[in-house]
Design goal:
- The protein has no helices and 15 strands.
- By secondary structure, it is mainly β.
Length: 174
């Protein structure tokens, strides 16, 4: 499953093997191909690929709980969770920009989804639509550009399809 393509034509994504386990992959613009796994993971999903060859996504642990990761262009994998470990029920990392900042969504045990950014130094920032947008029950951060601008959507009043798209500037304003 091809999930992203960068300016040099590299493609990132994941494959499903005969045991129904996912493995991340990276195909370079010149055609070389490699699969990778987060060590100890049941499955690894490649999602977002930046122009430097860094890729982000999620992996499933032995309890099938999703966690985020960033794979640098040298193959080094850093894993992370966006929420507090005591209340976390899953991290889904979707895109990574040229500066190494990943963006995605995590869910806590109270069920709401929250957007996040995770910078290259490991600092996680919650990205939730402000209360002035209405009763926001879930926020999904979908993409980030090189300047740190995040786009996504929020679910209002817990009802789909009532939602609101957002653009969050790098300084945190909406």
């Amino acid at each position: 499953f091809a999930e992203s393509i960068n300016a040099s034509g590299a493609i990132g994504g994941f494959i499903i093997d005969q045991n129904l386990q996912a493995h991340g992959f990276l195909r370079t613009g010149s055609g070389s191909y490699a699969t990778f796994d987060v060590p100890g993971a049941n499955s690894t999903f490649g999602r977002g690929l930046n122009d430097d060859g860094g890729i982000t996504g999620e992996y499933l642990d032995t309890n099938n709980l999703p966690h985020g990761y960033v794979r640098a262009n040298d193959g080094t994998i850093t894993t992370f969770d966006a929420g507090a470990p005591s209340t976390l029920s899953g991290t889904l990392s979707r895109k990574v920009n040229a500066g190494g900042t990943a963006v995605g969504t995590y869910t806590d045990t109270n069920s709401p989804s929250h957007g996040f950014t995770r910078d290259a130094n490991g600092t996680v920032t919650v990205v939730d639509l402000p209360a002035s947008s209405g009763q926001v029950t879930d926020t999904f951060a979908d993409d980030i550009n090189a300047s740190g601008v995040v786009v996504g959507e929020g679910v209002l009043n817990g009802t789909l399809p009532i939602g609101q798209s957002f653009l969050r500037a790098a300084d945190g304003t909406y």
